[in-house]
Structures are given as structure tokens and as C-alpha cells.
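Q: My labmate handed me this sequence with no annotations at all. I'd like to see what the chain might look like in three dimensions before we decide whether it's worth expressing. Could you predict it?
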Amino acid sequence: MGMKNNMGATDSRTRIALGLGSAVVGSATLGGLLGLGTTVGAVLLLLALVLVGTGIVRLCLVYRLLGIDTSGSR
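A: Here is what I predict for the chain of 74 residues:
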């Protein structure tokens, strides 16, 4: 019975792209290549994980709480 997708293809691709970008910057920060600090690097990696994860499964719990559906299947 799972949860219904509430995210469209464009939204999904955008989240994955932003997540991958955040992962690169976060990894570079934690690796010492950027001087943003370890906290910023860790937060960026966590944000990347959430963005890529929600983009892959096309389900956002915040969207669900706010009643947003970009999937076009309403």
C-alpha cells in the first residue's frame, strides 16, 4: 500500500542535481579544499542526502504536510 508520489519529474531532477552539487561542495569542505568549516560541510552532506533521496523516490514529506503535489497526478 505505500505512499503516493507527490513530486514531478522536473522537481525530482532539480533535487537530484542540487543534491549532487551540495555533496561535492560538502565533501570538498570536509576534505579541507574549501575553508567553510566542518559544520558547514557536514550540513551540506546531510542536505545532499535528503535532496537526492527525495528526488529518487519522488516523495517529499514536507510537501505532504503542506498539501503540495507537483506530480500532476491529482
